[in-house]
C-alpha cells in the first residue's frame, strides 16, 4: 500500500507550515506532499452531507481564508486514526468467542491521536476517506469500529502492490456493510444446522469413539458452502481440498455429500473393503470425490484428498493435484481449479511443511493460481494453549511472508465467516494468489473425544462448558 508515513509521522506544526507554503505555490513543496495536499483539498471541496460546498484553499487563490491551523492539525489526526484502524484494528476485533483477547497495545484510543471526547461532535472533512464526507468524529469512529473492529479483523496493509491493497480495502469495507437477504440467511442456518446436528448425533451414538469432531467450529460448513458456490460462479470447475482429521467426517457428509449410511457403517466397522478406496485406513483419513450442483445451477467437481496422520503433509499433495489439473485439463487456466487447504492453528504455526509450501507458492514451477487457506483455530494444540505454542501474535503470521491477506473471524458469527469466505474467493480469482481465513473457535471435547480436556485446561473448559453452540448463538 502507498506509504503515508511521511504524513502520519510528521509533527502537525510542520504539516501546517508545508500546507501554508502549498496554498501560496503548489510547486514549492515536495511532489509527494503536493499529491497529498491535492487529495486533501479534493476531499474538502466535495459536496458534504448538507449539500453545501467547502471551498478548497489551494484552488481558491491567495485571497481565500486559510484553514485554521488547529483545525488542520485535527483533520490530519482524524486521518491518522482512520489509517491506524485499517492497519491495527485487527488487534481489538471481536474475534474470540470464548474469552477476552490479549491486550497487544493497539494504541487506538482517541488520545493516541491527540483527540478527545470533546471532539466527538466536531465535523471533519477526513470522513471523506471513509466514504462519509464531512462527518462528526463520533460517526467516523462508529463506522471504523463496525468495519474494522467487529467480528472480522483484517491484516492487509503489508501488501506492497498499491492496486491489490486498495482492492482489498474497498471490497472488505463493502462486504462488511452488505446486508444478507432472507434466502442467504436461511442457507447459512441450514449449513450450521447440518454441522451441529451431525456432531451431536455422533457424540450421542458413538460415545468415546475417535472422530475428531468439529464441535465449536461448525461454521466451517457454511464457509465451505460459500467458497464452493461462489467459486463456481466465478468460473471454477474443480475444487481440491486438503485437511487433517478435525471436522473431516462433517465435511465429507455435509460438503461432499458422502451418505450418512457410509459414514455410520465405518463407525460400526462393517464397511465393505471395496468402498474404502483401497486404503484400509481409518475413517477420518479417507478421501472422497463428488460432483456438486450449486444453487445457481453450476456444476463443480469437489475432491477431498486422503490424508495420513502427519497433519499437514497433504497440503503440497493438494497443490500438486491442482497444478496438474490446471496444466493438463485446463490448458494452464488456474482460475478453473481451486485448492482449499484447511489447517489447524497449532499445525499451521508449527509445521515446517507450511513454510515450504508458501515460500514456493509464487514460483513459476509450483504456482497454482493461489490457494484459500482456512484455519480451524480452536486455540489449543492437543493439550497446549496457544500462548505456549507459538511466538507470533497469530498462528497465521506466516502469511505476511508472501503478502497474503488474513481475515481473522469469530467462529460464533456464521455471517461474518461467510463474508470472509466470499471475499477470499473474490481475491483469489482476481489476483490468483493465496489468502488466509483464521476462524477463531473452540474444541468442545477432547482432542479425539477419548481424553478429558479439563485435566490440562480446566479454566478454558469451564468457559466452554457454559457456551452455546454456533447454531444457538446464531438463532
Structure description:
- This protein has 475 residues and is an alpha/beta fold.
- It folds into 2 domains: 146 residues, TPP helical domain (Helix Hairpins, Orthogonal Bundle), CATH 1.10.287.1150; 298 residues, Thiamin diphosphate (ThDP)-binding fold, Pyr/PP domains (Rossmann fold, 3-Layer(aba) Sandwich).
- Strand 5 and strand 6 form a beta hairpin.
- Helix 8 crosses helix 10 and helix 9 packs parallel to helix 15.
Chain-wise SSE layout:
Blueprint: H1 5-8, H2 12-24, H3 31-45, H4 57-60, H5 69-88, E1 123-124, E2 135-136, H6 137-148, E3 152-155, H7 162-177, H8 182-205, H9 219-233, E4 238-243, H10 248-254, H11 260-268, E5 288-293, E6 299-304, H12 314-328, E7 337-344, H13 345-350, H14 352-359, E8 372-377, E9 380-381, E10 384-385, E11 406-410, H15 414-431, E12 435-440, H16 458-465, H17 470-474
Helix pairs in contact: 2-5, 5-6, 7-15, 8-9, 8-10, 9-15
Amino acid at each position: 500500500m502507498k506509504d503515508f508515513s511521511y504524513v502520519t509521522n510528521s509533527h502537525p506544526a510542520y504539516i501546517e507550515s508545508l500546507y501554508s507554503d502549498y496554498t501560496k505555490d503548489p510547486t514549492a513543496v515536495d511532489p509527494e506532499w503536493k499529491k497529498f495536499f491535492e487529495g486533501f483539498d479534493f476531499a474538502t471541496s466535495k459536496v458534504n452531507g448538507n449539500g453545501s460546498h467547502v471551498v478548497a484553499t489551494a484552488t481558491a487563490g491567495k485571497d481565500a481564508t486559510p484553514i485554521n491551523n488547529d483545525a488542520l492539525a485535527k483533520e490530519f489526526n482524524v486521518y491518522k486514526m482512520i489509517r491506524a484502524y485499517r492497519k491495527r484494528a485487527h488487534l481489538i476485533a471481536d474475534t474470540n468467542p470464548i474469552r477476552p483477547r490479549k491486550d497487544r497495545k493497539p494504541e487506538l484510543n482517541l488520545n493516541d491521536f491527540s483527540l478527545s471526547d470533546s471532539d466527538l461532535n466536531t465535523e471533519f472533512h477526513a470522513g471523506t476517506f471513509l466514504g462519509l464526507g464531512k462527518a462528526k468524529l463520533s460517526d467516523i469512529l462508529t463506522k471504523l469500529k463496525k468495519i474494522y473492529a467487529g467480528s472480522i479483523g483484517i491484516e492487509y496493509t503489508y501488501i506492497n502492490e498499491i492496486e491489490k491493497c486498495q482492492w482489498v480495502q474497498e471490497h472488505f469495507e463493502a462486504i462488511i456493510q452488505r446486508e444478507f437477504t432472507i434466502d442467504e440467511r436461511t442457507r447459512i442456518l441450514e449449513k450450521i444446522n447440518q454441522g451441529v446436528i451431525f456432531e451431536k448425533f455422533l457424540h450421542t451414538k458413538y460415545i468415546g469413539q475417535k472422530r475428531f469432531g468439529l464441535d465449536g467450529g461448525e461454521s466451517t460448513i457454511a464457509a465451505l458452502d460459500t467458497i464452493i458456490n461462489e467459486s463456481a460462479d466465478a468460473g471454477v470447475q474443480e475444487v481440491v481440498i486438503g485437511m487433517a482429521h478435525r471436522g473431516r467426517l462433517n465435511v465429507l457428509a455435509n460438503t461432499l455429500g458422502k451418505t450418512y449410511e457410509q459414514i455410520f457403517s465405518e463407525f460400526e466397522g462393517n464397511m465393505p473393503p471395496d468402498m474404502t478406496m483401497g486404503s484400509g485406513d481409518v475413517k477420518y483419513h479417507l478421501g472422497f470425490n463428488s460432483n456438486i450442483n450449486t444453487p445457481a445451477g453450476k456444476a463443480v467437481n469437489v475432491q477431498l484428498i486422503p490424508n495420513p496422520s502427519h497433519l499437514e503433509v497433504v497440503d503440497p499433495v493438494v497443490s500438486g493435484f491442482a497444478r496438474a489439473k490446471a496444466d493438463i485439463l485446463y490448458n494452464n487456466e488456474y482460475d478453473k481449479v481451486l485448492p482449499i487447504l484447511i489447517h489447524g492453528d497449532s499445525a499451521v504455526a508449527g509445521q515446517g511443511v507450511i513454510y515450504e509450501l508458501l515460500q514456493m507458492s509464487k514460483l513459476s514451477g509450483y504456482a497454482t493460481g493461489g490457494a484459500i487457506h482456512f484455519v480451524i483455530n480452536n486455540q489449543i494444540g492437543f493439550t497446549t494453549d496457544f500462548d505456549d505454542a507459538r511466538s507470533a501474535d497469530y498462528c497465521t503470521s506466516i502469511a505476511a511472508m508472501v503478502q497474503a491477506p488474513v481475515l481473522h473471524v469469530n467462529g460464533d458469527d456464521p455471517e461474518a465467516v461467510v463474508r470472509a469466505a466470499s471475499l477470499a474467493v473474490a481475491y483469489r480469482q482476481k489476483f490468483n494468489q493465496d489468502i488466509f481465513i483464521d476462524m477463531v473457535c473452540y474444541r468442545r471435547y477432547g482432542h479425539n473425544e477419548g481424553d478429558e480436556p479439563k485435566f490440562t485446561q480446566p479454566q478454558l473448559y469451564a468457559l466452554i462448558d457454559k457456551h452455546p453452540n454456533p447454531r444457538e448463538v446464531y438463532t
